[in-house]
Amino acid sequence: MLDEETGFVPQYICNKTCTEILHVSLNLGGEFIKESTATTFLRQRGYGWLLEVEDDDPEDNKPLLEELDIDLKDIYYKIRCVLMPMPSLGFNRQVVRDNPDFWGPLAVVLFFSMISLYGQFKVVSWIITIWIFGSLTIFLLARVLGGEVAYGQVLGVIGYSLLPLIVIAPVLLVVGSFEVVSTLIKLFGVFWAAYSAASLLVGEEFKTKKPLLIYPIFLLYIYFLSLYTGV
Length: 231
Fold this sequence. Notes:
Elements: H1 11-44, H2 64-67, H3 72-83, H4 94-98, H5 103-115, H6 122-144, H7 151-160, H8 163-174, H9 179-201, H10 210-229
Helix pairs in contact: 5-6, 5-7, 5-8, 6-7, 6-10, 7-9, 8-9, 9-10
């Protein structure tokens, strides 16, 4: 506020303003010194990492499916390869074996478990157990026979090849009262599943030993079907 007579700011106003500025500066300076002392103390004690601020990494903002390594297009393609095992259809079926995944077979096994419940929830854990240990048995037998296959590959192929049994499940509900037709459909489903799995797992390296691996695969799917039908 200017003095009307002199045109200058009165001395007492100037003194008051300077005092306020000095007070604020001292406070800010005190806080700065205090913060600097705390930072130094933490760093001396080895806790400096608490003060570090991490920059956002673009890789941390990946979609959930990508984070879990789930490729829906790849899973869909493998499902088609298993359901249509004929070479004439032009599918690269070896991708099911050569590029195994976990989530696709697990989803198929869980879905087969759900349609096999019939009010008995223990069937779910039993089917998953048979999938894991049955695949382990096929894997060990394949290795003994000289096959170059990994356990993850066997696990994926056996899991995906349950799809034919899922396909025939609603048909069995319709023709369940016709015993002969029901039996034929069951045999067709088991042969379909076993052929899909065996054609992927039984390679040329087995030569004359193919039946030794095809037979346990066939028995494994018969057992899976028995868990569904409750036999």
